[in-house]
Amino acid sequence: MGFKSDGSASASNDPTSTGPDSEEDTSSPFCLPPHFPIFVARQPIFDRAGHIWGYELLFRSCAEATVASFDNPDLATSKIIADGLSLAAGPMEKERKFCINFTHDLLVQDALYALPPEHIVAEVLEDTPPTDEVLKAIRRYKDAGYSFALDDYSGQPELEPFLDLVDIVKMDFMALEHVDLIKTTQKIRQHGQFTLLAEKVATSKSLQLAQALCYDLFQGNRLMRPRLISGRSLPSSKLAKLRLLSKLASQDFEVAELAQLIATDVSLSYRLLRHINSAYYGFARKISSLQQAVSLLGSDALRHWIMAAVLTELEPGPLGKELAFLSVRRARFMELISRCMPKPPGSAESMFLVGLFSMLDILLGTTMEQATSDLPLDEPIKDALLGEDSEYSKWFSLLNALDGGLWDDALETLQQADLAPETAAASHALATTWARQMLELSTEGQAA
């Protein structure tokens, strides 16, 4: 095995780490800031060769916290889901696994579907009751390609129903004496084929025992302590709205997934149901559920309404409404002129997206790099928004030229695309009328 002679895979002088013979220091106070800062610790998990197989992501309430001290475990995991994975998963870790704790409630609420199955191992906590509801949820997840680990196992009989479903068993090397560890390991091997992970390996003796028992994976402070990673993020409500916008603009979405995203926003859910039941659509029967409403999103008019509604909520007030209007007008203009081009740079949907997000940094009061960092945009679109070379770059510049009154620059771009100025002017007028109509519709019921 590729560990050093003293049993350690590497050394760490991280001041946020826990001590060498104790996995947790329970004296750390809860100190979660109200906004923006994100703190996540990641602890490597090693294979038998001493290579990093993956990481466990651990919630931290602040930079000074050395343990996961929190009042609400659902909230802690939600923060890992929303921001922790993107923060901890660097470009070199794309092929590695990330283990994240999931509570009973989050599992049955389908929270795991927010993460990619190919990179995630969901850890079932040792205090999770094996109810029929959670067992059925795990089976659904596994059918969708997700993997599971049973966390902090030490032979608890009440956890045995999980053993038929999990892929990894994380044996707690601090919970049992070595003799009992041997017995429990033999028993678990008789139950079925598992990847065995020795966790909370705090001493050289524990590591040697895990090696002798032929464990597959190893985790603990004797190998490497958790290392704190910090960052900043958009507020979750804004980030959810941006992801919703991206889903809608791509026209590539599952009805159930999109309904779930909309359901997290009470205001948008209310406004959608109110709007879709209005005389504007004239449905004979009342639409009474989000699932029904979202199933009708094949209608471009309804999709565009939601996009406009989301934009108006990113920055409330008169300024936000004006910025939303400009963004929607730009999006429609780009879509219309793309249909008039002999050789458009991309699909009409892609051009619409460039226009829609062209003022995202101003709407969010941040840099464009930060505004787009969590959006699953195609690289050419993101490059254009960031001012880098792309097939969409000159069209992004055209939007700025038109709104800035730089007519010579605008005419030059149109000539290069073999697009008549009269066509662009007509498209701009149509886009203005359409954007105004969308914004009027999108704000119906907003103050209700």
From TrEMBL:
Transmembrane segments: none annotated. Residues 7-20 have a biased composition (Polar residues). SMART domains: EAL. PROSITE patterns: HDOD (PS51833). InterPro entries: dGMP_Pdiesterase_EAL/HD-GYP, EAL_dom, EAL_sf, HDOD, RNase_Y/CdgJ. Residues 234-423 form the HDOD domain. Residues 1-28 are annotated as: Disordered. It comes from the Bacteria. This is HDOD domain-containing protein. It comes from Oceanidesulfovibrio marinus.
